[in-house]
Design a protein that fits this description.
125 residues, 2 domains, two-stranded parallel sheet, 3% strand, elongated, NACHT domain-containing protein
Length: 125
Amino acid sequence: MVIDAIDELKYETRQVLLTILTEFGPKLPSFVKIFLTGRPEKDIYDCLTELSSYELSPTNENNLIDVQIVVKQRLKELWNIETFELPAAALVAMDLIVSKSEGLLIFVKVVFSSYNLLNMVLMKL
């Protein structure tokens, strides 16, 4: 079962769902897994710590490596770089984007989308 963006539910609705999960979750058969996403709001975190869970943090080193791979590829496409290694300026850009992303790929998408949009506007001037 997948429950996405639990933090975006109204507080009262979220409390009902969290109560159901904590009350009935442990009674489910072991083959039933629940995948829950959302920002780590205090009420969500406090409620779910009672359950057997795994927290995937965006700042986890493996996640940051994935973000770095995506940024590197996008920079190579953007600047038509065909070599394996990035030039110094691209490395600085990559490090800056990855560190500012805090592990969120949506940030990377917005950065490159904004760049592409700005580039299109400037070309029409």
